[in-house]
Design brief:
The structure is a single chain. The chain is α/β, with parallel strands linked by helices. It has two domains: 135 residues, Rossmann fold (3-Layer(aba) Sandwich); 104 residues, OB fold (Dihydrolipoamide Acetyltransferase, E2P) (Beta Barrel). Helices cover 34% and strands 31% of the residues. The chain has seven helices and 15 strands. It has a five-stranded parallel sheet. Strand 3, helix 3 and strand 4 form a beta-alpha-beta unit. Helix 2 runs parallel beside helix 3. The longest helix has 35 residues. It is elongated. The two termini are 22 Å apart.
Length: 258
């Protein structure tokens, strides 16, 4: 199986040697290299890796500091790499997969990679089993009564007239204090209703709250842009860009079965 590796070491020669040894394995991809704990934490929060070769002593934050900051449960498979034997017990207390001492011997690294592949395969199998169990549990749940959603919204204009807006024509909805602004093509309609209440009244398969200040018609989305793990935006068919929160991105993914 293909493995995406991450090398973290403040010594250039140590990184170069490990990169060379890993490069001899066609199934290993070097996804990132870092020189200190701060860079490691940033990389782990912005990307995913199968295995991390982590030096214990680095400038600023060391290997153990990285695990404390990120959380052991959120770490990829971790192999400590160090010139000292004295940290071995502490390394395995934080669930390290292996502990390599410098200079790394090729045969010793190969044994480590065998363990990495075995553990990675087990993780994949466990994830698949959990997904199946969740799916079966959902099938066993009694069917909820079907919810009906309005096809039109009544919007007063303050002069005794009221507009009936077809819900499917709404591009997006913007929060405006105690009001909600309905964007329908080039027109804007102010509705005295909170965006939270509107989000609950609209069909969730067609309208998604992508941000605390915005609900978007899914059918009007042409692109989804991600910027790290917490930032992003959606591009509408008319070219307008709307900010998207992490929860909004997760809701869109769930809506499309991802």
């Amino acid at each position: 199986m293909k493995l995406r590796a991450f090398i973290a070491d403040d010594e250039p020669l140590a990184r170069e040697r490990l990169r060379y040894l890993l490069g001899r394995d066609p199934d290993i991809e070097i996804g990132a290299e870092c020189r200190n704990g701060k860079e490691v934490i940033s990389a782990l929060r912005s990307s995913t890796f199968d295995v991390l070769f982590l030096d214990i002593q680095m400038p600023g934050r060391g290997g153990f500091d990285v695990i404390d900051q990120v959380g052991a449960a959120n770490m990829p498979l971790t192999v400590f790499v160090t010139a000292h034997n004295k940290y071995a017990i502490q390394a395995f207390e934080v669930n390290a997969l292996d502990y390599l001492t410098k200079p790394i011997e090729p045969n010793r690294l190969q044994n480590t990679l065998i363990r990495v592949r075995e553990r990675a395969s087990s993780r994949t199998l466990l994830t698949t089993q959990q997904q199946w169990m969740s799916a079966l549990a959902a099938l066993e749940q009694p069917l909820a009564p079907q919810t009906t959603y309005p096809s039109r919204i009544l919007v007063p204009n303050g002069s005794g007239r009221e507009f009936l807006i077809n819900v499917e024509e709404i591009d997006w909805i913007e929060a405006a204090d105690y009001y909600a602004c309905l964007h329908v093509g080039q027109k804007r309609y102010m509705l005295r209703q909170s965006i939270k209440d509107l989000a609950q009244s609209l069909d969730p398969s067609k309208f998604v709250r992508i941000h605390r200040c915005a609900i978007v018609n899914v059918g009007r989305i042409s692109e989804i842009l991600r910027e790290g793990r917490t930032e992003g935006s959606v591009i509408l068919t008319d070219g307008r860009a709307l900010r998207m929160s992490k929860s909004g991105w997760q809701t869109l993914l769930a809506l499309h079965g991802r």
